[in-house]
Every structure is written in structure tokens, then in C-alpha cells.
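Dear V.,

Thank you for sending over the compound details. I've combined the ligand you provided, copper (II) ion, with the protein sequence from our construct and run the structure prediction for the complex. I'm sharing the raw inputs here so there's no ambiguity about protonation or stereochemistry in the SMILES, which I know was a concern on your side last time.
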Amino acid sequence: MNTATKVTAYAGVLAIVFGGAWAAGAVVGPSGGESAPAAMDHGAAQSTPSNTGDKLPPGLSVAENGYVLKPLRTTATAGEQQPFQFTIGTADGGTVTKFDVEHEKRLHLVLVRRDGSGFQHVHPEMAADGTWSVPLTLPAAGSYRVFADFKPENGTKTTLGTDIQVSGSYEPKQYDTDTRESTVDGYTVRLDGELKPGAESLVTTTVTKDGKPVTDLQPYLGANGHLVALRSADLAYLHVHPMDAPGAGPEVKFMVEVPTSGRYRLYLDFQHEGKVRTAEFSLGTTGSAPAPSTPSTSAPATTSSENHGGHGG
Ligand SMILES: [Cu+2]
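Below is the predicted structure of the protein with copper (II) ion bound, written out as C-alpha cells.
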């Protein structure tokens, strides 16, 4: 009921999820000793991808890489437009004021209610003293996760997260089945591809309007579209690479790195006729962790995927 209880509950969930990941990682992972990076060669690992135990995904913490997200306030009133203001602090108590431009912006702010609804992707303005500000309207009660995605000048690319609380009657939405088709403003967007735990997965989104492919998508943030992927259980913020696709639609492709099995929410921002819209998808992972997909060691692939059987087994 109160915030402290809720926070404790979240912490408990995180401890379970990642405690499990660490424990499993300790079993299949290489023993320490050498610092050789070729630690990924355990194709026999069944459901524990090599990258779960090492490092948490981004977005789970308010502080990382020596930076801390400092919101000026963490409450809001449902349905009212209010400024959301924050700074990015440093370990020595300072404030970051210089940021590199990534995907055409110095800072990306992504916001979603804890149940996975109400996605927003906005670009705050920074004052000279490092205070970022953006007008936000949170439509309904609940706890909203805010992600600030940025790279300080000469610093590390970082995604920090915190929550904004909106009081009122909270009716959480449930996204426990796969949703591969999203309709927004007369556009229908379909998502194809499978999410595989522990691997990069290619997902293809296809934008149509009135049954016809849209072939004049406009660039948005340096690509034909922008995808955000979140792990439903804890809203971990996943790594997504846009893939170059010829033309301007209807297909927009991405590589998504999914660390663990489970359910994910995906949000595609696309721009057409001067307006950015968001298509939303829900997807569960399929299969178990495959052998490492990174061919950098150029080792011959002796394991084959046929052992893994069909889908969903
Ligand atoms: Cu952005």
C-alpha cells in the first residue's frame, strides 16, 4: 500500500531474479583466474545465456557508471501537464552539463507505467546549469518508470531509471499473451521474428495503412524507426540496434538483445507525414539459450541447433 512496501517488494523480486541468474552463471560460467575474454564457449549451456550473470541490463538503477539521476520531484498529478525536471549528477557531487549527441539527441527520456502501458519517448531541454526539463502528462494513476539514456562527453553511455508516483485508483493492464499487431491512428504495424534468450534476435516491423505498405516513412532519430525493448518483469532496458534497411519502409528491422527467457514489451516509434507514432507489442521468448552468436573467435561451429528441437517445446 505505501511506497516503502512497494519498493521492498520490487527489491525482493529483483533479488530473486538476479540471484538466480548469478547462481546459474556461477555453475556454467568459466572459473575465474584468467582474464581471457573467451569465456563464452559453453554451447552446452541449456537455458543460461552467458551474459546474464556478468552484468545487469541497463535501466535498473538510479546510479551507474559514476552518474546518478536526480529528479527534482517524483510525484505527479494524473492528467495534468507538469514539468519533469532532473539533473545527471557525478560521483563527486557535480552536475553533468556536456553530453554527446546520440541518435540526434543529447538525452532520450523514455517513460512507461510499471505495468508496461503508457509509453512515452520525449527529448528534454537542458538549461546551462545542467537541469533538464520536459513537460509531461501522465494520464492515469500508477507508478511510472523513467529512463534517461545519455552519454556524457568523454563518458560512458548510460541508462538510469527512477520512478514517478501518480496517486489515484490504479488499474494495471496485463500483457501476458503475445501481441504482434498494433494499430495506431489508422496504421497497422506487424512485428515478425522471435526473441531468443541470450542471443541477439532480428525483429522486423512492417508498417501498413489501409492495407497498403507505407513506403515513405520519414527518418526518426537517424533511422526509419526507433525501438525500445523492456523486460516486463523488472523493466530492464534492453540493447537494440537499428538495422539498415533499404528504402523508407514498410519494413524496419532491429537486432534486440534479450538476456533471459520471459516476457518483453517492445515499442516502435515511427514517423510518417510529419508525426511520430508508437506501436506497441508484447512477446515471450522462444527456445533456450543458443550457442554464442558472436563469430569473433572464428571457431568452427561444432554444435548445431537441431538439438534444440522445435518452437515452444
Ligand atoms: Cu529519444
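A first observation: The two ends are 39 Å apart (CA to CA).

Warm regards,
I. M.
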